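Case study.
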Amino acid sequence: GNSVTQMEGPVTLSEEAFLTINCTYTATGYPSLFWYVQYPGEGLQLLLKATKADDKGSNKGFEATYRKETTSFHLEKGSVQVSDSAVYFCALSDGSARQLTFGSGTQLTVLP
Amino acid sequence: DSGVTQTPKHLITATGQRVTLRCSPRSGDLSVYWYQQSLDQGLQFLIQYYNGEERAKGNILERFSAQQFPDLHSELNLSSLELGDSALYFCASSVHHEQGVRTDTQYFGPGTRLTVL
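After joint prediction, the assembly is written out as follows.
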């Protein structure tokens, strides 16, 4: 079946540091890949997505590239801000089954 | 604001009781999904409806059921509640197809936090 493995958290960084959150997946088909972010006390917000191999999703300074050869979709940001503190979820949607399969989430705290 | 609304925001009830959670999808979206977020299980898919019909089932207990109405809003019914059902329940919606291109992008509501005492 489908599965998503995320880097264990929590991750604590200083403001302006470089961020990488690793995500690898297992899927039977050709999935779409997503990063969602959950701010404290809120629901999930779509951060970025990629629907085919070598696609790069980007939003608000965050980027992730769909790597089929390594089955990965790592999230990166060059310079994090305190406002980026949140829980980040990697997810996939298999073409045959529309539901999302989520990773366990990575808590990010950015200190001023 | 994703455009997906959920009510109520919080629900506190006792074991053995039954509750109904409500979701209104984004305007134009035909698919509704329900997810459960708990500390021990993480985010898990429960069930999907498309234009009033059940399309996919995940790890949904037999005590739980859902439906989607003609106006496309959806309700998740949880019965014979147990302490372990305490969780955040999210609804998400997607258009299913955007401009002829298949898309899987789901937009999430703010969630209903259920506490079973």
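Observations recorded in class. DSSP finds no helices and 13 strands in chain B. The longest strand of chain B covers residues 42-50. We will return to this complex in the next lecture.
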